[in-house]
């Protein structure tokens, strides 16, 4: 029996964040004053989760927002 487990959006954000941070180690030095690493492992800028460009997570979020009947 084949089973596909889909990662949650937050898991995808965290995976893309790790990839982005690995590639640009200097990111934290530049944004240290505005960006905070919280206990959940995600980066936050002004109390909003930072969604990196890696992994097409932004596209996924926008697609889900546009398909939702609720206002995001």
UniProtKB/TrEMBL annotation:
GO molecular function: RNA-directed DNA polymerase activity
Keywords: Nucleotidyltransferase, RNA-directed DNA polymerase, Transferase
Top-level lineage group: Eukaryota
Name recorded for this polypeptide: Putative reverse transcriptase domain-containing protein
Provenance organism: Tanacetum cinerariifolium
Higher taxonomy: Eukaryota, Viridiplantae, Streptophyta, Embryophyta, Tracheophyta
């Amino acid at each position: 029996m084949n089973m596909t487990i889909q990662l949650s959006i937050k898991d995808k954000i965290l995976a893309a964040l790790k990839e982005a941070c690995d590639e640009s180690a200097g990111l934290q030095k530049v944004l240290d004053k505005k960006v905070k690493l919280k206990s959940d492992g995600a980066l936050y800028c002004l109390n909003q989760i930072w969604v990196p460009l890696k992994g097409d997570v932004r596209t996924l979020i926008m697609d889900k927002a546009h398909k939702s009947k609720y206002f995001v």
